[in-house]
Amino acid sequence: MQENTSHNRRLWERRSAAIPISLVLESDHFEADDSAITVDISLHGAKLRTKLLLVSGERVGVVLNEEFPNAIPALVAWVRTDESSHLTLAGLDFY
What we know:
Structural class: mainly beta
Largest sheet: 6 strands, antiparallel, barrel
Strand order of the largest sheet: 2-3-4-7-6-5
Number of strands: 7
Distance between the termini: 34 Å
Number of helices: 0
Radius of gyration: 14 Å
Order of helices and strands: EEEEEEE
């Protein structure tokens, strides 16, 4: 039997990337944060920093820029407070 020595459970590699995005809350009458920024990103998810208060399980839309005006649907997987900036850090799963 082969032993799995990898401690990384991610299926897709994440890359560090500070990409400005607009984050749209569907549940709050489409409240948006145009100053949100990614910390890292993969094909199926992202970690980001935002001023919005997010909740695990919440549906959000991610808009990259004017070239891609359609929101990418995502689900908030986890939420924490960034102690240094007092902003919200969140993990998103794209679907």
